[in-house]
Design goal:
about 400 residues; three-stranded antiparallel β-sheet; globular
Length: about 400
């Protein structure tokens, strides 16, 4: 059973000839950064997710940072973050000067719930924290119950930022009783996405912020470009801002609040736009691969099974994690990963709980996180991407079970 190179990573970009032609067209255009292609990507994305505003930026991390800043989160504030997520969900809040308190997750899905968020908010408030926002994370492609979480956030007057970096193309049930695209912000203030190289929409790098509040979008746009203001209506009148006739000077701009260089290049934007055009097909093909995994893994008995499934909506799978009962196997996770790697099969762990990282141990809660630990101790992400075929799944699972039997 020879393994091809496309299984050597848990996620491999699916780059087509159309993608390559799109990038070449931008290289030949003479406009490489934050130009018309970025505008086109933003317009297309608003239609994809049914949101009023989409603000492109350099990464999903940048989108998180811009979102927190645009909502006014800063020193003295606390943000609730699931204990199982990528570090950026928490670090972007800390870089705003805020503190982070962790919420536990469901041990079967890795997702936070309205109950675990409520517990974290109550715990933080009892410790004297001024909780200002919650950041539910859609993990692996599955969406949290935003209807319940959004309702709780509104009742508690908390901002809600959806970390949807794994979930582009998915649908979620809303508090209005309908299913809407992830990113519509029907039950949140802001949603953020990533166009990292291993995502379903891969721009190499890149991110997107969506919202329905025009002022939040405006703040994010200003913040991604050093805080530069070019609207004459916002200028403080001076001898430099306007000429003798009262007309704005063409070179003049102001910085009201320092920002960042979080701009997205047209090169990354056009690749993301090209991939966005086939998003529905990509989601459909990934779902077929995940279904094939689910069937194949059923032969693993008590040793291995898929992660728990969330009812409602439609999952746009980004990762394909399974839960392994290492207590009944003859091998530990390190052995399994090394064995698969020897056969050309790449795997990864998503994610080590944040309270285990030295950077976050100053904010580590005395309260245990049994759900996060239960999920982390068993999870392993198997290959999932657009280049895979159904027979690849059989090969991966065969080698996985081989490693577990020892």
């Amino acid at each position: 059973m020879p393994t091809e190179r496309h299984l050597s990573s848990y996620a491999t970009p699916d780059i087509t000839e159309e993608d390559i032609a799109a990038v070449v067209s931008v290289l030949q255009s003479g406009w490489l950064t934050t130009g018309p292609t970025v505008d086109r990507l933003e317009q297309a994305f608003t239609k994809t997710v049914a949101a009023r505003n989409a603000v492109a930026c350099s990464s999903g991390t940048a989108a998180l940072h811009l979102a927190y800043r645009a909502l006014g989160i800063g020193p003295g504030d606390t943000v609730i973050v699931p204990v199982v997520t990528f570090v950026a969900t928490a670090s972007a809040a800390i870089l705003c000067g805020a503190r982070v308190v962790f919420a536990d997750v469901d041990s079967e899905t890795g997702l936070c719930t309205s109950e675990t968020i409520r517990e974290a908010v109550d715990r933080a408030r009892s410790d004297g924290h001024r909780v200002k926002a919650i950041t539910p994370v859609h993990l692996n492609g599955q969406s949290v119950n935003m209807a319940a979480i959004g309702c709780y956030a509104r009742d508690e007057e908390l901002f809600c930022v959806e970390d949807a970096c794994h979930a582009v193309g998915g649908l979620q049930a809303t508090s209005g009783g309908t299913a809407k695209p992830v990113g519509s912000c029907s039950d949140s203030d802001v949603a953020v996405f990533s166009f990292h190289a291993v995502k379903t929409v891969a721009g190499g790098e890149g991110g997107m912020l969506t919202c329905n509040d025009m002022e939040v979008a405006r703040r994010a746009r200003v913040g991604r470009n050093h805080g530069i203001l070019r609207d004459p209506d916002t200028f403080a009148r001076s001898k430099y801002s306007h000429d003798q006739t009262g007309a704005p000077n063409p070179w003049y701009y102001e910085v009201g609040q320092p920002g960042f260089n979080y701009r997205l290049s047209d090169i990354h934007a056009v690749l993301a736009l090209s991939q966005l055009n086939r998003l529905e097909e990509s989601v459909r093909e990934r779902s077929k691969i995940v279904a094939a995994y689910e069937e194949a893994i059923s032969s693993g008995g008590d040793m291995v099974r898929p992660i728990g499934r969330i009812a409602g909506g439609q999952t746009a799978w980004h990762l394909n994690p399974v839960l392994i009962n290492f207590g009944v196997t003859k091998r530990d996770r390190a052995y399994v990963m090394k064995h698969l790697a020897q056969h050309g099969i790449g795997t990864q762990v998503h994610y080590m709980p944040l309270d285990l990282h030295p950077a976050f141990q100053l904010d580590r809660e005395a309260s245990p996180m049994p759900g996060g630990k239960g999920y982390y101790d068993r999870v392993l992400s198997l290959p999932l991407h657009g280049l895979m075929r159904p027979d690849d799944v059989e090969q991966v699972v065969t080698r996985l079970l081989e490693s577990l039997h020892g």
